[in-house]
Amino acid sequence: MTGGSGTTAVGARAPIALADLHDSLADPVLDSMTFLNEIAGRFPDAVSFAAGRPYEEFFEVEAVHRYLRRYCDHLRDEHGLSEGQVNRTLLQYGRTKGIVHHLVATNLSVDEGIDVDPEAIVVTVGAQEAMFLVLRALRSDPRDVLLAVSPNYVGIRGAASLVDMTTLPVRDGSRGIDLVDLARVVRSARAAGQRPRALYLVPDFANPAGASLDRDTRLALLRAASEHDLLILEDNPYGLFHAGGDRPATLKAMDDEGRVVYLGSFAKTGMPGARVGYVVADQPVAGPAGIGLLADELSKIKSMVTVNTSPLAQAVIAGKLLEHGCSLVRANEREAGAYRRNLRHVLDGLAARFPKTGPEGDRVSWNTPAGGFFVVVTVPFVVDDALLERSARDFGVLWTPMHHFYADEGGSHQLRLSVSLLQPPQIEQGLDRLAALIREMRPV
Amino acid sequence: MTGGSGTTAVGARAPIALADLHDSLADPVLDSMTFLNEIAGRFPDAVSFAAGRPYEEFFEVEAVHRYLRRYCDHLRDEHGLSEGQVNRTLLQYGRTKGIVHHLVATNLSVDEGIDVDPEAIVVTVGAQEAMFLVLRALRSDPRDVLLAVSPNYVGIRGAASLVDMTTLPVRDGSRGIDLVDLARVVRSARAAGQRPRALYLVPDFANPAGASLDRDTRLALLRAASEHDLLILEDNPYGLFHAGGDRPATLKAMDDEGRVVYLGSFAKTGMPGARVGYVVADQPVAGPAGIGLLADELSKIKSMVTVNTSPLAQAVIAGKLLEHGCSLVRANEREAGAYRRNLRHVLDGLAARFPKTGPEGDRVSWNTPAGGFFVVVTVPFVVDDALLERSARDFGVLWTPMHHFYADEGGSHQLRLSVSLLQPPQIEQGLDRLAALIREMRPV
Questions:
Q1: Which ipTM was obtained for this model?
Q2: What is the sign of the dihedral through the CA atoms of A121, A124, A130 and A133?
Q3: Which residues of A touch B35 (CB under 8 A)?
Q4: Inter-chain contact B64–A91, Cβ cutoff 8 Å?
Q5: How confident is residue A443, by pLDDT bands cut at 50, 70 and 90?
Q6: According to the model, what pLDDT value does residue A10 have?
Q7: What domains are there in chain A, each with its CATH number?
Q8: Angle of the B311-323 helix axis to the B83-91 helix axis, nearest 10
């Protein structure tokens, strides 16, 4: 069979005009991701502080085989499934809300002190799909807007853009969220006829700013959400990777009013290549047929986006959970150690290269997060995409201009260093290169 | 860590009003899927002609292990990847457009005579995500509408509903598409100020009607698309499962003008539990930065919906492709035989139970598709959801009321039988039960 011969060609059709495609495709936030990936691809030999991907040293495909076997054993031994039923569970289409929801609920209880009905969990294709489902559900009217602590992960603004939802930035301030600014944004949005539906934030080691909310700020935020009648979208991909010591409870664990929709990711704690995440949406929804769960509404949307999350991929994550008693803290002891080591190495390396008494001492500064993947460096010159390209080409080091994480004008003199993917020798080399770039930018 | 204690509870918030969520959640098409799944779950012992899921007899988890190993060998032996690179390819985040695009392109060439640039392929979370991405891109204005040959798969209307895109039905008629009706719908839509952007159809063994377009109709449709300036969304999940004999080339293989966006699924031919599909979108898009591929615009949207399709899941499909020389025709010889056998069995079984000379001879009829998963039965009474419930409860047989596949009033006296999942003894039993129901509905 060959294509094309004998058909009635009347010439190629005209190109589709980008202006005739959805507005999100002209939104800089969708281009951010493309640009950052593209430049990383063009300079594969550069030391990369750019990618927020998890540590790879412990990756082994053999673990995938082991996890699959472990989950199959679980289905046989704990649930009494026959061989045929095991095969069908992994290989056939599956439940829209997912098949590993009970294990996810156990994990949330073990690691986070969050007790949820497994029926309130929707297993998704990464936390990204979870964000998309929640925003698609909430955005029912052009007046609906999302609030997001800024700077923020581009994926939340991108998902909002896909559903024509405006994102209003809320300042992070010194405590991870500026509650005075939150009140101001809510007030001015309502005055302008907008409906703030939810507030998005990462309370633990935020991407990109690395900030965390202390317990008092969390309690105050929950009170503020109640006062302003907002849902909170709590995204928690980095919570397990603290630098040691106590971590305050998640917002969801403190959530007595059912205001928190919890976005979970296994990309950093499970396996990125499985693309499995989830959302806990135990909010009641009142419709003509009675009261249901928000999770079931999200499931209806999911059935028209991805139908269901690959049961095979879910099985891999389930096997990893089972192998560690459903604790991802235990499963990630080595990885958490590597992130702690790397974070310390980057912070020490910056201090060594930019001593307070040196020529850049008062002109280059950085934050000192208590965990997570990211450090933000502030410099006395404009950090734009052209500088990143020059850094990659002439200095062999990649990082992320912070302006990509702001919907407004913020971040113009900042860059984000991701510490998650490198080994100490690469960190040393990368920081040397970064220091050379910064020295060259010194005004003469 | 325990949740909730010590927080400032001020009582549970009020339920979210369904009316404050996106309109799609009140669209009957999203409820169709939920209702049909729910009733199947309530009557697990009924013989089910309802599910359009692929045949399960040959499912074996061991194949997953084998496919993964095969793909890893391929990466090592054909692409020279190191062990670390193999681990990262499967376990880390991956390219947004996918990692198995070259194998998909080879498969399209081998099985379908479609020659495409692998860069024009976006690997998706099933064909459902492909539909969503295309519709999200195309729906840029409230005037944009989708045409869809009716009756049709609920997933296309559901995806359209998520992006607030109206679907206008086009009659299938006796040839799989009624081109006179297509012209009428385009004309009246334009007269009403609407912009028909694309026409969706399944040219081979359509779900649910089983119809296929012959070669002349395909050529005429391509001419009509040119004349009306429409894109064609060609969805082809069942093409390989013909009952024998020649099959006309796909629209994409005949597409000289670049009008066809091709939606591919591995759910029926690869493995449903992998949730891997793809879209071929080689249309040029003209923007401020020059000419690009529609596939790259879809990729930008995908990065905000699911980030990328699980590389693990892609690896499983890739291994299956490699094991069969990238031919899914070869990979599915056993399955295609089972579907042929089942289709014949259902058609013969209907003929035996409703002979032309019997009491229902002129009142019960059915189509005779040349392949695929579905047979449509027409009966002399109204087929609604209440009848399905009665059929399941009192007669122990499930099927699908055809009205779910119509956006308008069609299908009121029809039911769909799916032949894909059963074995001959179950088919016999199921048809006996269906015949008993139909006899009981005979007017006295």
A1: 0.95
A2: negative
A3: none
A4: yes
A5: low
A6: 45
A7: 19-58+332-440 (3.90.1150.10), 81-330 (3.40.640.10)
A8: 110
